[in-house]
TrEMBL record:
The keyword Kinase does not apply. InterPro entries: ClpP/crotonase-like_dom_sf, Enoyl-CoA_hyd/isom_CS, Enoyl-CoA_hydra/iso, Enoyl-CoA_hydra_C. This is 3-hydroxybutyryl-CoA dehydratase. Belongs to the enoyl-CoA hydratase/isomerase family.
């Protein structure tokens, strides 16, 4: 995947560019995204960041399951830690980050959107945390961020069932801030980013930092618990069966 970064004034747009694979992530793509986010975070001329996916089908369809199916717990832990580094970078850069979700946001793709400060969705967008259907728990932050965003009960339903949520429901439950036609999504994100960029850079950064502690819960500690659970799932019968079933396009038969 190439990570394309463009600028219009003080607003940077980061595009996940692997549309033929629904912008799914492998280790190289995650590393490239991490570098891009950190570089933009250190650039004081950037006042807002938009994150979106190339093509009209997907924001990001999550991690590459074909690669993940071969992981042992150590490899899974390293991959999960890299995914968490990306989401924490998005969460902690001084600039607000707006996710412009233009299609599927599944698994890690949804988790990356959850790490953003604001989420706008095309009316074609679909969200899901389907990890349990693969025999693993989420690994890039969904267990920590989704409950804070939509509430514990709704988050538990979505994570424990893995069901898909369309844009209308995502708006109703507070998963996204607004829904737009696909052709209006990026202009709307650009308008929102421009509004933010027109304010004091230092005040916006301070407000973002203050809101991050509003929940009074140790997010890094929660992420470590999630990472332990994610890595430990690899090598289990459920993980092998869940990912094999996905790759073979059949329903899993759980032990």
């Amino acid at each position: 995947m190439s990570i394309d970064v463009t600028r219009v004034g003080s607003v940077a747009t980061v595009t996940l560019n692997r549309p033929e694979a629904l912008n799914a992530f492998d280790q190289a793509a995650l590393s490239d995204l991490l570098r891009s986010v950190r570089k933009l975070g250190a650039d004081q001329t950037v006042r807002a960041i938009i994150l979106t996916g190339a093509g009209d089908r997907a924001f990001a369809a999550g991690a590459d399951i074909k690669a993940m199916a071969k992981f042992n717990p150590q490899a899974a832990r390293a991959f999960g830690a890299l995914g968490q580094a990306v989401t924490r970078a998005i969460e902690t850069v001084p600039q607000p980050v707006i996710a412009a979700v233009n299609g599927y946001a599944f698994g890690g793709g949804c988790e990356i959107a959850l790490a953003c400060d604001l989420r706008l969705a095309a009316d074609t967008a679909v969200f899901a945390q389907p990890e349990v259907s693969l025999g693993i728990p989420p690994g890039w932050g969904a267990t920590q961020r989704l409950p804070r965003l939509v509430g514990g009960g709704v988050a538990a339903e979505l994570i424990l069932t893995g069901r898909r949520v369309d844009a209308t429901e995502a708006l109703r439950i507070g998963l996204v801030n607004a829904v737009h036609r696909p052709d209006a999504l990026l202009p709307a994100a650009g308008e929102l980013a421009a509004q933010i960029a027109g304010n004091s850079r230092s005040a916006v950064a301070a407000a973002k930092q203050a809101m991050a502690v509003a929940f009074g819960v140790d997010v890094p500690g929660g992420l470590l618990t999630e990472l332990d659970a994610f890595a430990s799932a690899f090598g289990t019968e459920d993980q092998r069966e869940g990912m094999a079933a996905f790759l073979e396009k059949r329903r899993p038969v759980w032990p």
